[in-house]
Design brief:
The structure holds 2 protein chains of 2 kinds.
Chain A: H1 2-18, H2 22-27, H3 33-43, H4 49-61, H5 75-110, H6 115-129, H7 132-146, H8 159-166, H9 168-194, H10 197-204, H11 209-220, H12 222-239, H13 241-246, H14 252-261, H15 265-293
Chain B: H1 2-12, H2 15-36, H3 61-71, H4 85-101, H5 119-155, H6 157-171, H7 175-186, H8 191-201, H9 204-217, H10 221-228, H11 233-270, H12 281-286, H13 288-293, H14 298-325
Chain lengths: 300, 330
């Protein structure tokens, strides 16, 4: 709760103090003093700061940030319509990339020090050093524009269309980008666990390698893995904006970019506050999940 | 100094680390030379034709130009003298004089962009921008993170609570969203703005590590001994403890250089980064989509190569430094 208050204060400080007078942005380049005065009164920025802060807190509590400055669409309406497309891309993306990264990391951890291990690790380092922008540009150009395997961009009207046709290439790009850092992280987690005594014990009593790796090691490595997946979610929600922008997916991320380009403060404020709230909820969920995964974990 | 000497000896044995160190030094030297104006000072000169292809591909432009010239026929005058002929001839003469002095190359070493600027020179100039942003922002973030972490970890109490609260506020907003929100509010471009945005939002990781180190060190005997001989709080924090945690700061510093170079590329690509009169790898990539459709791949290739090599070298260098400074980790 104090964290949430801090986020509210930070956002308020940024937009109401650093950001300057919004009336000048709204009124356009040539505005009469009366018009500016009108806008100031309707936004409440002629009030003292503590009144403005109270207005902002009330807006958050009732989830009503008013209308977008540039399109006049309700901010709540923007959220309701943009969340679906974002999730259509993000949920499969997260599932596929996590499963693939786990399998690959298991493989390289098992054959550590071998040629496979070193080749994959060097590949990951190089792959990580190329900007996500390059992946998007090259994949879009080669696979969609040149080869025509996927639509270049766009969004359909039915869920099946969106998931199988339009979201396929964005998901592919996202998986490729997130594989390299995930494999590196999971590999080190697995290596940590594999040097533990219980692994030797399991092998000594004659368990198969598959059972040792997939049951014993994986379950013990679950906490760092869950932490990594959970911390990725809020970042993905806003961070997929590059993918959404290039493939013209009407999601939250593209909305953020548009809002920043148009200085559309209500939308940015709303996204920042809600993503922060989502982060706090996800952190809480992660704590509960730790408890379920490992009974030794004690919650305060 | 024996810690640093030992680390240096260990580092010399790491061949991959040495190679990456050499590459990093070459990049830094290139950026310095570019900042001093020794190389790529004339990156903005339009030396080639528009979209001049790389030299090794040969010129397709000449054929096209020859083809275009053949189709232009002299106009029929129908026996009427052009009243503007004299003026036109004058204008054409002055135009020819202007363009005649700089003959445009049909090919460039690694191709040209839309305005016929040399891609290699742009990439070198972009290296300067990216390295300056990465190093300066990382230095700012490391300074803030170390200062906050030292105060929070050393004093504890309400100072610790305050900085922990600040940390949880900053980390509950996803990094790129926070960067974009600050960029939206500042609403101005330029290298200094980018450095400020990245540095002021990126201190959290360093803070957490340094705070934990100070918590550990403040009860060590050498710190208690310093207290006993009357060293002040500031002296104990920065003259006694800081040298003992500086290897962590160094590793974090170079990790953050990589992070900030990547962030700068994304910011500049979206148009919230460096201004239009500066070139960076991000602004080079921003020109790539329209070029790719026309089949002009050399600018994206140059920017990608320059960036991938720099970031890979920096990452491997960081890994080697960490291994050299902390031999227990293997």
């Amino acid at each position: 709760m104090p964290t949430l208050l801090g986020v509210v204060l930070l956002v308020f400080f940024l937009f109401n103090w650093v950001g300057g007078d919004p009336a000048y942005i709204l009124a356009g380049k040539i505005a009469s003093p009366e018009a500016i005065e009108n806008i100031r009164r309707s936004l409440g920025v002629d009030q003292p700061y503590w009144v403005q802060l109270w207005i902002f807190i009330k807006q958050i509590a009732v989830a009503d940030f008013g209308a977008s400055w540039s399109t006049n669409e309700r901010v709540s309406q923007i959220f309701a319509t943009r969340l679906g497309p974002s999730l259509t891309v993000l949920v499969p993306l997260l599932l596929i990339s996590t499963l693939l990264a786990l399998a690959a990391a298991m493989l390289v951890a098992y054959y550590r020090g071998s040629l496979t291990d070193r080749a994959i690790m060097i590949g990951c380092t190089v792959g990580q050093s190329v900007s996500i922008l390059v992946y998007i540009l090259v994949f879009q150009y080669l696979l969609a524009y040149q080869l025509g395997w996927f639509p270049v961009q766009g969004w359909g009207s039915t869920f099946a269309d969106n998931l199988l046709l339009y979201a396929a290439l964005p998901i592919l790009v996202g998986v490729v980008v997130s594989l390299a850092p995930d494999i590196r992280l999971y590999r080190s987690v697995f290596l940590d666990e594999m040097s533990q005594d219980y692994v030797r014990t399991a092998r000594a009593k004659g368990l198969g390698e598959g059972r040792v790796m997939w049951l014993h090691v994986l379950r013990n490595a679950a906490i760092p893995i869950v932490t990594n997946v959970m911390t990725q979610i809020p970042g993905l929600l806003a961070g997929a904006f590059l993918i959404e922008r290039f493939f013209s997916i009407p999601g939250i991320g593209r909305e953020v970019i548009l809002a920043v380009e148009r200085s559309d403060f209500p939308v940015i404020k709303a996204v920042t506050v809600y993503v922060a709230i989502a982060t706090l909820i996800i952190n809480l969920a992660a704590d509960l999940l730790y408890r379920a995964l490992d009974p030794r974990v004690q919650l305060k | 100094m024996s810690l640093w000497l030992l680390a240096w000896r260990r580092f010399l044995r790491d061949r991959l680390g040495l190679v990456s160190l050499v590459i990093v030094i070459i990049y830094v030297a290139l950026a310095c030379a570019s900042a001093a104006g020794w190389v790529a000072r004339d990156w903005a000169d339009e030396v080639g034709v528009s979209y001049a292809p790389p030299r090794f591909l040969g010129s397709q432009v000449e054929e096209a130009a020859a083809h275009g010239a053949a189709t232009v026929r002299p106009q029929e005058t129908h026996g009427i003298a052009d009243p503007l002929a004299e003026e036109l001839a004058e204008i054409q003469a002055s135009l020819a004089g202007a363009t005649g002095t700089e003959s445009r190359a049909t090919t460039l070493a690694f191709g040209g962009d839309k305005w016929g600027r040399d891609v290699v020179k742009k990439a070198i100039k972009g290296t300067e921008t990216s390295l300056v942003v990465g190093l300066a922002a990382a230095a700012l973030a490391a300074f803030l993170g170390t200062l906050f972490g030292a105060v929070a970890g050393y004093y504890g109490g309400w100072r610790d609570d305050f900085f922990n609260w600040l940390y949880s506020v900053f980390t509950s907003i996803p990094y790129l969203l926070l960067v974009l929100a600050v960029a939206a509010v500042l609403n101005q471009k330029g290298i200094v703005t980018v450095i400020l945005i990245l540095g002021l939002t990126g201190w959290t990781g360093i803070f957490r590590l340094i705070r934990a180190e100070y918590l550990k060190h403040r009860v060590r005997e050498y710190v208690l001994a310093a207290d006993a001989i009357g060293a002040s709080d500031a002296r104990r924090m920065f003259a006694h403890i800081l040298p003992n945690v500086s290897h962590i700061v160094l590793v974090q510093l170079s990790l953050h250089v990589v992070l900030f170079i990547k962030s700068e590329v994304i910011l500049s690509f979206l148009g919230f980064g460096v201004g239009v009169d500066t070139v960076s790898w991000g602004s080079m990539l921003a020109e790539a989509p329209s070029e790719l459709i026309l089949g002009m791949w050399w600018q994206i290739a140059a920017a990608t190569l320059a960036m991938a090599l720099a970031v890979t070298a920096f990452s491997l260098f960081t890994d080697s430094v960490r291994d050299a400074l902390d031999p227990r980790l293997q």
